[in-house]
Design a protein that fits this description.
mainly alpha, Butyryl-CoA Dehydrogenase, subunit A, domain 3, two-stranded antiparallel ribbon
Length: about 160
């Protein structure tokens, strides 16, 4: 459940920051044009939104698996934590770039970036996660095969 929490927390923490960044990008101008009109800014804000939604929905899927007792629930919770951590760290870095020197020195963006980097301490790097997953796959495959094998089905006897 703890791994699932980090995935959800990351998604929900970045949501208000994204809303503020969108409003800010309509006000900040470069070359007499609001920066929201630049494709680079549009892409960065879209990438943050896609990451946020991905973290939310993989977390919701992991929660469903946990509640239904699915054998792959622990692995999906780990994926939730990894996606959440990557989303919040990458999103915070992109927000820092979007705000420029205003975001770098002090204030909400600086604090958010520092807090986002804390997710690196709780989420294993992708390489480490890949090793853990590949070790679990054979066991998950065997459980899935057993669950779908008609020979293992129990028959109910009349009372």
């Amino acid at each position: 459940m703890g791994r699932l929490y980090y995935g959800l927390a990351a998604a929900w923490l970045i949501e208000p920051m994204l809303t503020e960044a969108f409003d800010f990008s309509k006000k900040r101008t470069t070359f007499d044009v609001p920066i929201i009109e630049h494709q680079y800014i549009q892409k960065k804000l879209t990438d943050i939104r896609i990451g946020t939604e991905s973290a939310k929905w993989v977390s919701y899927g992991a929660l469903h698996q946990l509640l239904s007792g699915a054998p792959e629930a622990a692995m999906t919770c780990s994926i939730s934590k990894l996606v959440g951590a990557e989303t919040i760290v990458e999103g915070a870095m992109d927000l820092m770039k979007l705000y420029g020197s205003k975001g770098y020195h002090e204030g909400q963006i600086t604090t958010f970036l520092r807090d986002a980097l804390a997710f690196c301490s709780v989420a294993a790097p992708r390489k480490c996660t890949a090793a853990i997953f590949s070790a679990r796959w054979p066991g998950l495959h065997a459980k899935a095969k057993k669950a779908t094998d008609p020979a293992t089905e129990k028959t109910l006897e009349p009372a």
